[in-house]
Amino acid sequence: MSLALFIVAGGLATVGGIGVVTTRNVVYAALFLLLTLLAMAGVFLLVLAEFLALVQILIYGGAVVMVLIFAIMLTRTREFPRISDNPQWLLGAVAAVAVFGVLAAGFLIDRPDAPMPERAVFTLGSLGNALFTQWALPFEIASLVLLVALIGAIIIARPGGRE
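Above: the chain sequence. Below: its structure as tokens.
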């Protein structure tokens, strides 16, 4: 059963990833990205990484895709020429095939002498406790940086924003 769910989630992630890179509409690309991120959250649930699945849905699926859609809506697209095709698509395709080859070789090479590390057990409570005690300051600094970037994007995108 879990293998079938993994195949479904992997297929959805693959379809979403292909949709992101092949569609010419940026809004559709953002929606395909959302599909990919949600499918990856399903994969995290299948490997019992509940926290990563929650972060994937809330942070990436919610916040990042929303910021992308807001950036698309705030961009003055009429000022830019219509982009029909990238002249460097062949170089990108060669790089993608090379990266796929390296990753496939890494997955397919069997190393029986490689040690398996012990899996540490964390609960969401202990992770939340560490996040809001030990890592509270870096967490707040990262949120302030993202807030400043969003405000800057709004200022630049508004009519007459560069004067």
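The mean pLDDT is 83.
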